[in-house]
Every structure is written in structure tokens, then in C-alpha cells.
């Protein structure tokens, strides 16, 4: 479906009109409505109780506040009020004057100077000159989508897991309610135009437009954080951003200043392990976990509180790219993750995550050997299991990137009754920072009035003015207490929905220091290392070789090895040291924890569900391909939810050996193996002969092999694999049937296509085949 179709569908859904009816009904100037002085965009109705009818302060609500029950479509309906569609319309100025010529400026004679009075030129140019706004200071590059959140049945319990005993937040407890959301995924370090597939943390920010106001869960795809106190955040960001003298490198931690900072901050060790792992190279936003990071509080109707950690778990599994692949994607498909999210939603796959909570009370928290207020720590799932409570579904792409994805503004301070903060000193600092930074980005405290940021819940208060104020607040009294407007708007007692913070008892001296309970830095870094499979460990070591290999100063590399990594695991430190010219340490560091604990939930290999939904599969062919190989495999893969593309030397129609034709979706100039999850070479000797004479298909296969991706070949297609020489791989011979060897699925005779397709689907579901030794493959 094209994006135009998409828009029409949605509009149709809401108005019940066909697209053609809508364009006839749109405000066309031919059927100009007669204007009279009482025409307004929307006429507020008097309140049912009569209050405010005298204009004395009360009013029915913000003009676009959602009335009645909120549902999945509510935000879309609210946005519909500000959507503009130029289709079939006449060109006008911003002020509604019809324009006769938008190509030629007004001049004093044909070849004379431009005239100041050309209001259309001035307006067009001024708008253009002011099109950009400051990019986010961090998380500048991102992409977003609309969807909904719904509390749901716990598949393990077989019933709805009601957590109303621990929270009064309706958004988390009403299974009949689909709350609209907008989610923005992002990289952290790079500027707005940087590549998607850099080694970095990913932001996972969700704005829930709940009936009780907006709740922003502004999280990341990794559960710990780099630092413990918000005071350190500007230093962290200055260290990791491009160096200030030459603005190099873009979107990368691989330079002296970041590792200088890291090597002097042992609290960073746990997070650095995650950043060196495949978690920092997500295959897709839809294949990425999300975490609230901090410990938050839930509060119930009785004012009691438990601690909570929030987890998003993707239905499609948690998968990574490999480093060589990411660097190639920077050039060949630099919008890889942005495009990936957009395409799957437009194609009708709706990515889904499960929201889970880890709940624990103060007594349990006391018993952990770490402080739950320390954001460099996780609560291991071996200690507190994750309890699934609902699902997030993303099902609409934005209509306009700037208006929605760029202007959406998150703030961890946006919470609703039933959800509260903990004293995590990083979280506490964030509560100041986000409101403050939005003032810089939007130049006004009225950023909450921008349509994408507006709550669906009604808003009434005494805020009135400021740059770009949208609301027209009626009445004289904009203060409290007042008698002129019946003292409206009224405060709301807690029992009726007024927000109340948890009544925590605090007793202590003002102090500027770091708690003793925040001083241990290596235990969970070691837990993470222990929990990795060997290929995952190798990925971490390789990443450290790259990152620290880019560090010029030897003393920084040494500190990383001796002071940090050697306190995580001696073997790890030794393996890293060997690759970066540092003398390997003789013995483990003094602070290395003495434990072999593992948490299976930390390894991505344990997060590989049996599905190939949304994976992209390339079929390489040319004229003379074996018709049934292509048609049967294509339908078998598509039946499992995969997306199949035909790739050939040139675009256009390709003829099969038995007369069927297919259309090439992409040609080798534009298609690269790095954009796909798996590749197939169907049989047909003429097709395979042509492919074998070209470098591109062989490179495609060799590169897919190097990146551990599933590969399949049928009939004569197996000859191409032999030509490429895949090391230590068994290729099927005559009469062998289907042979699977480290994710390479082959059949020489190509007779049993069902069994072949099944073996290939299994290989794709495993995502990557780490048992290969692709080092010698030249790709
Ligand atoms: C004291 C620590 C932190 C400070 C001061 C801070 C500050 C900021 C700032 C200024 C922005 C730009 C916001 C904008 O212009 O719209 C931002 C964005 C963001 N931050 Fe933080 N941050 C901190 C820690 C964290 C942590 C721990 C997380 C994850 C739990 C996080 C997740 C995000 C995300 C996801 C965004 C992007 C939101 C979007 O998509 O617009 N930040 N942060």
C-alpha cells in the first residue's frame, strides 16, 4: 500500500466517506462556504452545569480535548482536526490569498531588481529560511510510529493478569481499553543525518495518551545506564559526542575522549559491556527490547507503593546485525532502521511488544546485593521474573515526519496517577532536563500544545500566554484563588483522580556525595559476560578491539584493560589486550567478583522465537530459472510472513525455463546482501550460468555467508555455492535430498520442495548461524 492509499484508508475509516467524496466535500474554493462573522473553527458548548456561561473563567475544555470514551482511534481523530491535504486544492499564501505565479518574483521591469512589495516572495523565502529547529542534543536521529497499548491476557496465566492491587493507573489495568501511543526510536550520539546502524544505545520512547493525561515512558534498548548521577550526564555526552576541536568522529564512541572518560569511571563498566555487545547493533527497531531503566514506583488506591522496572519484549525476537554488516549499511542503506520500521507498517505487518513488569517491595529491595536506585544496575530476571501485563502494537506511520516525529517531545516527568518516581538520582535529574531542553528546541513553554504532544485528556489551568500560544482561554480570572470565575478550574482530590506523589518518609541531612550502596561496579558486568554464548563473547572482544583500536593514547587503552575489564573477567581482559597492543594482565584485577552466576535472559540467543515474520529474503535469478523453485519457495516463505524480493542484473521481466515470468524487484546496482536476512539461488542452468559469470551474485552469497545469514540453493543453484567456496559447508550431492549445514540449505535434485522450504524456514528463524568460520571468505 502506498502512503497515499494509507492516508485515504484512515480518513475513510473515520469519516465513513470514500476518498472521492472527501475531496469533493473538502473546503474547495469552488463550493466556497459562505462566511459570516459568527463562523468559528469550533464553537465551545456551555458546560452542562451552567458554570462559566458568563465567561467568568469556566470553559468546556481545550478545543480538541477528547470527549467521551477514549479508544485506539482517539489520537488519530484529534490529529485529523489539524491535517491539511492539498490534493485538488488551489495554491494560496499562508494567509489564504490565492497565488497566481509561484515561480517568478515581482520585478521592476523584466530584467530589473526584485521589489520589496512582493509579499508572496517574502513569505515563501521567510518560511524556508526558518524551516529548521535545533536538533535534540542527544537522540537527534530517530523515527516514529503510532499505535496502541492494551493490558492483555497473560499467555502463561491463561487469563488477564490484573495488577490493580498494585497500581491505580487505568492505562495498565483496564483490558478493555486500547490507549493510543506514539513511539519514537532513536540513536543517541549521532546528529540528525547520521547513519542508523552505528554502534550505539537505542532510545525507545513511548507517549501514552491516557484518559488521565500523558504518560511518557522514555527508555532505552539496554537496561542499565552509563552513570549514576544526573550531574555526570553533560560530561558523558561531551565525551562521547564528536571531539570539540574537529567534530570527529560522527555517531561513534570509538575515539579518545569517550574511552578516556570511561576508563576513569568504573561505574560505566556494566553499560560498556552491553554497548560492546550485539545489543548496540539492532537488526531492526521491531526486534529490539526496551527498558524503563530506572526503578519507578506504582501506587494503588490505598496509597501503597511497590517498586517497578518496565520491560518491552518484541514478539519477533531480539536480533542483532554484525559489525561488518553495519559498516557497509552506513553507505548502502543508511536509513536501514528508519526504513525498516516504515516499510513493515506500510506493508501491513504491525510490530508488537509485550509490556512486562518486575515488581518488588522495599523489603525485597533491601535484600538485593545492589541498590535499586543505582541506574547502572538491573534487577536480574533470575531474582524477579518479568510479569507480562499488556501489548504495544505499532500500526500507523506518521503523515509528516517533522510535525510528528521531529516535534514529538518526551519528558519522563509526564506520569499519571498510579505511577511515580523513585529517588534514583539519574531519574531525578532527568525530571528537570527534558522540560528545560524542550524550551531550547521549541523556544516556548507551549510545546505541549503542538498536536503530537497534546494530551487527549482535557486540560484546564491558568497558564495563558507565551510564544505560539494556540488555545484561546476565555474568562477574566487566570489565577487562584478567584471569586470572579467561581474559583475554577477546581483542584481535584486524590480519591477523584488528582495526582498525588507517594508519601515517602525522608529523613536525612543535605549532602553532596555518592551513597556507599552505589560503590560496587563489576558484579553485574561479570554476570553479563558469564551469560553470553561464545560467539556473543567474541563479538564483545571484537568490538573492544575496534573501539579501543581507534584510541590513540596508550594510557587510556591500558586503563580500560587493567582497571575495568580485568575486574570483570581476566580471560576477557586478556583477549582484549592481545588485540590492542596492551600487555595482557598477569592475574585478575583486585575487584573482580568471585562468581559464575548467569542470567539466561541476557543472551540474545535465548530470545529467538520460532518465526520468520517480516524477514527480508532475496531470490537471485536471471532468465531460464526453474519456475516451480521460485513460485513454491516464494509462497512458502510468504505464508510464514517473510518478505521476498527478486533480484537480477537488470530490472524488468525474467522468463522461467518453463514459460512463467517474474518481475525483478531490484537490480544488483541497488540491492546489497546487507539489506536482506537470507538469500536463495533457485535452479535453472541458464539462470545459474548467467549468475556465475557475474561478480555481484557471488559477492552477495559470500557476504551473506560472512554475516552468518541463511543461504539456500536448489538444483543448478548449488553450483554457484560451490563456485563461491563456502568453508566447511556440506553441499547436497545427487540423491542426497535436502542437506542443512550451518544454515546453508541445499538440494541438488530439488524434488521435495516442501521439505526444502521447511528446512530453510527453520534456518531463517534461527536468524544467524554462528557456528561458521567465515574469516577466509573474501567479501
Ligand atoms: C541525567 C540523565 C539524562 C539526561 C540529562 C537526559 C537528557 C536528555 C535530553 C536533553 C534529551 C533530548 C530531548 C529532546 O530534545 O526532545 C534526551 C532524549 C532522550 N533520552 Fe535522555 N537523558 C538522560 C538519561 C537518559 C536515560 C537514562 C534514558 C533511558 C532510560 C534516556 C532516554 C532518552 C530518550 C529515549 C530520548 C529521546 C526521546 C525522543 O525520542 O525524543 N535518557 N535525553
TrEMBL record:
Annotated region Disordered: where?
Answer: 1-113, 579-609
* Family annotation (SMART domains): Catalase
Q: Which residues does the UniProt record annotate as the domain Catalase core?
A: 92-488
Task: Name the InterPro entries for this protein.
Answer: Catalase (IPR018028), Catalase_AS (IPR024708), Catalase_clade2 (IPR024712), Catalase_clade2_helical (IPR043156), Catalase_core (IPR011614), Catalase_haem_BS (IPR002226), Catalase_immune_responsive (IPR010582), Catalase_large_C (IPR041399)
> Which UniProt keyword terms apply here?
Heme, Hydrogen peroxide, Iron, Metal-binding, Oxidoreductase, Peroxidase
Q: Which family does it belong to?
A: Belongs to the catalase family.
Put simply, this protein is called: Catalase
| Organism name | Natronorubrum daqingense
Amino acid at each position: 500500500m502506498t502512503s497515499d492509499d494509507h492516508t485515504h484508508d484512515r480518513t475513510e475509516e473515520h469519516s465513513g466517506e470514500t476518498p472521492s467524496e472527501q475531496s469533493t466535500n473538502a473546503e474547495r474554493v469552488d463550493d466556497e462556504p459562505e462566511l459570516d462573522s459568527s463562523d468559528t473553527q469550533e464553537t465551545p458548548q456551555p458546560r452542562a452545569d451552567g458554570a462559566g456561561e458568563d465567561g467568568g473563567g469556566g470553559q468546556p475544555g481545550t478545543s480538541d480535548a477528547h470527549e467521551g470514551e477514549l479508544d485506539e482511534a482517539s489520537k488519530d481523530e484529534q490529529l485529523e482536526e489539524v491535517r491539511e491535504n492539498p490534493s485538488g486544492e488551489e495554491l494560496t499564501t499562508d494567509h489564504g490569498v490565492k497565488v497566481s505565479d509561484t515561480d517568478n518574483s515581482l520585478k521592476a521591469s523584466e530584467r530589473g531588481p526584485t521589489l520589496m512589495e512582493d509579499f508572496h516572495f517574502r513569505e515563501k523565502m521567510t518560511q524556508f529560511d526558518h524551516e529548521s529547529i535545533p536538533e535534540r542534543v542527544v537522540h537527534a536521529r530517530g523515527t516514529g510510529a503510532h499505535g496502541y497499548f492494551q493490558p492483555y491476557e497473560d499467555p502463561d496465566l491463561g487469563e488477564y493478569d490484573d495488577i490493580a492491587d498494585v497500581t491505580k493507573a487505568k492505562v495498565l489495568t483496564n483490558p478493555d481499553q486500547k490507549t493510543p501511543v506514539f513511539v519514537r526510536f532513536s540513536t543517541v550520539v549521532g546528529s540528525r543525518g547520521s547513519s542508523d546502524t552505528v554502534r550505539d544505545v537505542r532510545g525507545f520512547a513511548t507517549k501514552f495518551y491516557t484518559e488521565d493525561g500523558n504518560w511518557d515512558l522514555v527508555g532505552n534498548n539496554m537496561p542499565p545506564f552509563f552513570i549514576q548521577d544526573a550531574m555526570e550526564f553533560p560530561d558523558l555526552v561531551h565525551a562521547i559526542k564528536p571531539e570539540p576541536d574537529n567534530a570527529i568522529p560522527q555517531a561513534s564512541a570509538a575515539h579518545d575522549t569517550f574511552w578516556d572518560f570511561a576508563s576513569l569511571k568504573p561505574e560505566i563498566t556494566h553499560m560498556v559491556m552491553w554497548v560492546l555487545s550485539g545489543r548496540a547493533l539492532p537488526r531492526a527497531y521491531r526486534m529490539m527490547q526496551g527498558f524503563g531503566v530506572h526503578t519507578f514506583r506504582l501506587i494503588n488506591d490505598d496509597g501503597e507503593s511497590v517498586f517497578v522496572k518496565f520491560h518491552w519484549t518484541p514478539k519477533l525476537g531480539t536480533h542483532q546485525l554484525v559489525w561488518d554488516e553495519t559498516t557497509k549499511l552506513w553507505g548502502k542503506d543508511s536509513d536501514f532502521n528508519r526504513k525498516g520500521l516504515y516499510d513493515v507498517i506500510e506493508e501491513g505487518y504491525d510490530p508488537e511488544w509485550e509490556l512486562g513488569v518486575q515488581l518488588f517491595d522495599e523489603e525485597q529491595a533491601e535484600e538485593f546485593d545492589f541498590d535499586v536506585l543505582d541506574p547502572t544496575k538491573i534487577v536480574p530476571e533470575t531474582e524477579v521474573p518479568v510479569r507480562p501485563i499488556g501489548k504495544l502494537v505499532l500500526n500507523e506511520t506518521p503523515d509528516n515526519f517533522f510535525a510528528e516525529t521531529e516535534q514529538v517531545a518526551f519528558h519522563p516527568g509526564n506520569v499519571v496517577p498510579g505511577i511515580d518516581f523513585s529517588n534514583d538520582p539519574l531519574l531525578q535529574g532527568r525530571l528537570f532536563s527534558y522540560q528545560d531542553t524542550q524550551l531550547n528546541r521549541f523556544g516556548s513553554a507551549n510545546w505541549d500544545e503542538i498536536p503530537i504532544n497534546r494530551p487527549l485528556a482535557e486540560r484546564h489551568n491558568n497558564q495563558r500566554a507565551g510564544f505560539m500560544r494556540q488555545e484561546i482561554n476565555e474568562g477574566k480570572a487566570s489565577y487562584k484563588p478567584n471569586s470572579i470565575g467561581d474559583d475554577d478550574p477546581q483542584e481535584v482530590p486524590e480519591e477523584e483522580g488528582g495526582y498525588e506523589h507517594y508519601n515517602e518518609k525522608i529523613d536525612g541531612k543535605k549532602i553532596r556525595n555518592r551513597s556507599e550502596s552505589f560503590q560496587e561496579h563489576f558484579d553485574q558486568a561479570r554476570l553479563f559476560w558469564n551469560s553470553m554464548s561464545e560467539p556473543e563473547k567474541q563479538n564483545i572482544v571484537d568490538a573492544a578491539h575496534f573501539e579501543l583500536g581507534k584510541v590513540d593514547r596508550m594510557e587510556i587503552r591500558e586503563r580500560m584493560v587493567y582497571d575495568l575489564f580485568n575486574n570483570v573477567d581476566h580471560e576477557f581482559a586478556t583477549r582484549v589486550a592481545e588485540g590492542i597492543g596492551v600487555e595482557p594482565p598477569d592475574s585478575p584485577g583486585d575487584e573482580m567478583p568471585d562468581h559464575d552466576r548467569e542470567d539466561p535472559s541476557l543472551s540474545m540467543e535465548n530470545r529467538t522465537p520460532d518465526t520468520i515474520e517480516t524477514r527480508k529474503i532475496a531470490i537471485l535469478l536471471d532468465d531460464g530459472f526453474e519456475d516451480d523453485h521460485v513460485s513454491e519457495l516464494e509462497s512458502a516463505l510468504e505464508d510464514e510472513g517473510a518478505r521476498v524480493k527478486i533480484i537480477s542484473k537488470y530490472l524488468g521481466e525474467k522468463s522461467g525455463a518453463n514459460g512463467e515470468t517474474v518481475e525483478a524487484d531490484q537490480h544488483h546496482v541497488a540491492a546489497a546482501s546487507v539489506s536482506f536476512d537470507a538469500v536463495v539461488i533457485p535452479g535453472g542452468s541458464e539462470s545459474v550460468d548467467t549468475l556465475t559469470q557475474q561478480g555481484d551474485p557471488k559477492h552477495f552469497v559470500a557476504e551473506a555467508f560472512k554475516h552468518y545469514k541463511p543461504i539456500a540453493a536448489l538444483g543448478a543453484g548449488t553450483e554457484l555455492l560451490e563456485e563461491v567456496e563456502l568453508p566447511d559447508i556440506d553441499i547436497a550431492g545427487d540423491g542426497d535430498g535436502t542437506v542443512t549445514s550451518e544454515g546453508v540449505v541445499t538440494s541438488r535434485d530439488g524434488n521435495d520442495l516442501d521439505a526444502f522450504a521447511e528446512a530453510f524456514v527453520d534456518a531463517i528463524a534461527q536468524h544467524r548461524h554462528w557456528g561458521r568460520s567465515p574469516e577466509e571468505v573474501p567479501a
